[in-house]
Amino acid sequence: MVNAKILVFLIVFMLAMNVSHSFQTNSSNYKNFPLIVSSGGDIVNSSAYKTYTATGIVAGVINSSTYKNLLGFFYTWLLANGQACTANNQCEGGFCCSNLCQSTACTTPPEPGPVPSGGGGGAPSGGGGGGAIITQEEEEKGFSVSPSSVKTKIILGGSSQQTLTIRNTGDVALTVSLSVEGVKDYLFLSDNILTLDPAQAADVTLNFIGKKVGGFAGRILARADEIEKEIPVIIESITEKVLFDAKLDIPAAYAVVNPGGTLKSQITLLNIGAPEKVDVIATYLIKDLRGNIIYQETETFAIEKQASFAKSFKLPKSLEEGSYVAIMEVRYADSFAVSSQLFEVKEKKSIVEQIVARDTASTMAIALVLIAFVIIMLLRFIPTRKRRQER
User: Fold this and answer.
1) How many independent structural domains does the chain possess?
2) Which of 11, 128, 142, 286 is the Cys-Cys partner for 295 at CB 3.0 to 4.6 Å?
C-alpha cells in the first residue's frame, strides 16, 4: 500500500513538473528567481550569467562572451517575436525582418530611383528603378621572358643574332617596353614596345655587332606597368685569329658571394697557335650590368702549351646585391681572346641563421633539447662530486 502511494506521488509530481515549474534557489555563486515556465519568456539570471528559459518555441538564449545556447528541441524550434533570425521559417510569427522575428509582413522602403535631370520625367511613383552595382575582381598582370640571360661571342667587325621571347602570363592585355643598358653600342632590338593579349607571345630579335674587342656586360629591361624584369647580357668580342683559348670558370658553390667577400674562379689558358713559349697579358674585370667596371687587374705570364690555376678576386664591401660579370681578356700580339661568367652578389646567411629563418619552431625545439641535456649532465655531475667530497 505504501509503495502504491509512493508510485502515485511520483507520477503526479512528474506531471506537475511538465505543466509548470516554480522555484527559487540561492548560493554564493548564483541566484535563481521564482518563475513559471509554460510558453517561454521568463529569465533566470545572476551577476555572472543570464538565462532565458523557454518551452515550445524559443523565446530567449543562454549566452556569455564565449557561447550562445538556444533552448528547445533541435531543428524544430520556432523563435518568438523580437528574437534574432536569418530566415522566415525560423520564426513563430512567420516573418524575419531586419534579422528579428515578427508576426507581420516585412515592410521594405523602395529604393530611390535615378534623379531626373532638367525637370524631365522620372520613373513612375512606386516603381523607382535601382542601378546594379557591378563588382570586378582584380585582374592579374604578368609576363615571362625567355631566355633569362643572354650571352654571345662574335668576331670583331662581325654580327650575330639571338631571339628573346616575351609572353603575357596575366589575365589582361599588357604593353611591355624594352630598353638596353650598358651595351647600347653593341646591341640593337628589333622592337622596343610589344602589346600582348593574355597568353600571347612575341619574339624580339637581338642584333649584336662587334665594334671592338673585349668583354662587355649590360642588361635588357622589360617593363609593364609596375612589373620589371632584368635580362643580363654578356658580349664576348674576339679577333678572327686566336692563338690562345681562354676559359674563366666559377664553380657553382662560389657563384653567390657576400658583399666584401672573395670571388673564386678557375683559369685555364691553352696555346693553340703560338709556335713557342710566349708571354701573354691577362686582364681581369668585374662589371655590373650597367657596364661599370667594379674591379680590374692585369698580369703577365709565360705559357708554352697550357696553364691552369685558381684566381680569386676581393670584392668591395660597398657592392650592392645583384648580378655581376667576371671577365678575362687575354692578349698576345694581334690575337685577342675573351671568357666571362655571370655571378651574384648576395648577403648569405650562416647555417644557424638559415635554420632559424626556415623553421623557428624546430630551432626552439633543438635549443630546448640542448638546454635539457646540459641540465641533466649538471644534475648527474653535482651528486657525483658531493659523494667524492664526502669520502
Assistant:
1) 3
2) 286
User: What's the pLDDT tens digit per position in 103-148?
Assistant: 777 775 544 444 444 444 444 344 444 444 434 445 789 999 999 9
CA 365/CA 358 separation, integer angstroms: 13
DSSP for 222-242? EEETTEEEEEEEEEEEE-SS-
DSSP symbols for 38-51: SSS-EEEE-SS-EE
Percent of the chain with pLDDT over 90: 46
- Under a CB-based contact definition with an 8 Å cutoff, are residues 199 and 168 in contact? yes
The three grid cell numbers given for residue 358, joined into one nine-digit string: 626556415
Q: Is-contact 87 72, C-beta < 8 A?
A: no
Structural domain span for residue 176? 141-238
Domain CATH number, residue 314: 2.60.40.3880
**Adjacent-strand bridge partners of 311:** 265
Q: Is the peptide bond before 147 cis (omega within 30 degrees of 0)?
A: yes
Give the per-residue pLDDT at 364: 67
User: pLDDT: is 80 or 14 the higher one?
Assistant: 80
Least confident of 130-139, 187-196, 233-242: 130-139
Which residues are within 8 A (CB) of 94 and not within 5 positions of it... i.e. 6 or more apart?
88, 103
